[in-house]
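Why does this matter for the project? Reviewers at the last site visit asked to see concrete outputs rather than summary tables. In response, this paragraph embeds two records directly. Each consists of the residue sequence and, immediately after it, the corresponding structure tokens. Nothing has been edited or filtered.
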Amino acid sequence: MIEQEVIFSSLGDEEVERQLFTTDGASKQAMLLARADATQLRTLQDIDVRYIRIGYDNEGSWLAIDLGNGEVFSCDDEYNLVDVIRTPLETILNWPPTAERLLLLTQRLNHRELSKEELPRKRNVPKSEEMIEWMLYVKAGVVTRENVSDWAGHVLNQSEDEMIERTALDGLILLSGIDLLDNEGHYLHREQDLDDWIEQLRKRMRQHED
């Protein structure tokens, strides 16, 4: 369940344009409402309070969120469905996804259910446990090396002006190069390298605990 106050706090003082995609891949131009307008609409709402309107699209439909499951959809005044929006709520409202959500969205990307541009722009700096998990995901075939490299590079670029704890920084630098190729087109870092990295991170975690 998403609290409506969290939604309102993510809206700006003015309307903001967003490009969204439906589940069939169609593009929609939408405007997110200003915080004050969305709040006023909510105050006047007397039907289907599980839904909250956050904007409108270029076809004259409302953009709404199901507070129960976080799904975004376009609808009419009575919340009758027009289109299901596949673009994640985190992307629309510029939230950093949780580790679980980022994994799910990455898998959707790999299954071509999302485009790369639809992934959330903000990312949390991962803990060592999360970096280990993602390397294990690579070894298990759950995600690709390219997924992990993109993720690590995104966090590094986003965090250029932020202070990142040294262990996290070292881990991100390692992961950003996980997809490098040698002259023959093979991955430069073999499976054993990944095992060594995992052990290095675990060792640093133990040292930090001590």
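We now turn to the second protein, recorded in exactly the same manner.
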Amino acid sequence: ELDLINEIASSKGRRASVLLRVTPEVEALTHKYIQTGHRGSKFGIPLERVPYLAEKSLSMEHVALKGLHFHLGSQIEDYRPYVQAIGVVTELMANLESDKGFILEELDIGGGFGIGTYGVASSKPLSYFVDPVMERLRARCSAFGLPLPSVAIEPGRWVVGEAGITLYTMGAIKEIAGSTTYISVDGGMADNPRPALYGAKYDAEVVGKKGLPKDRIVTVAGRCCESGDILIENLSVPGDVKPGDLLAVFNTGAYNYSMASNYNMLPKPAVVFVENGKDFLAVERETYDDLLAKQRSICDD
């Protein structure tokens, strides 16, 4: 990739600023599909390869090595893996300075800061993650005699996740004696595959019934034709819920619409922005005509 960057930058008469993404060999406590910092990850450069690639990049005419980058995963709710990774990366920084004469200007610690399942109050503040990281980084840089680099973070989900609410309309209610009560809704894994993919947890409220006693335990079933299409298990709802009620699922602003598909040939829902009591249709609801628009018949001339 360095050779490719150098080649492209040369063809444009530019010098490309780059960070080397390293694998700090830190396993964060999250679903294995969204762990990205362990040694076996498909992402990043193994630690033992970094000195060679750093030296190579420093010798390239059209590559400007600025620093290092790492990313541990997604939905990480504990700051300690980040602190552990800082320990690994600062030792690497010190070795690059002593062996290659490279002084790190930038350090990108990625993102993955987890959010809760229910509203803003359920998520940790950004300072919970950032403050211990910066404290550790300052201490390690001081110990190694290194200047403090410019630090970047990528808190995408933390910024937008809580801004999203998905509204579903309830359909049939199926009660199985001594077992489960299912409430079917008009969406599911096609618009939010995360529960099926990662076992992601969400919370919800029945619209217009907040504050009422929740004396009924239900499982929210999606509309797709497989048993794995379950959005929420063991959700407490008021006892008088009925078909036609709206269910508001919280904290769906990240990795929902962007992961949505047309599985089961289902059209994607609309996206509406709301601010200060005013709404704006940001994305139109798909139609079945939209799904068929790119298809061609073998009978067409």
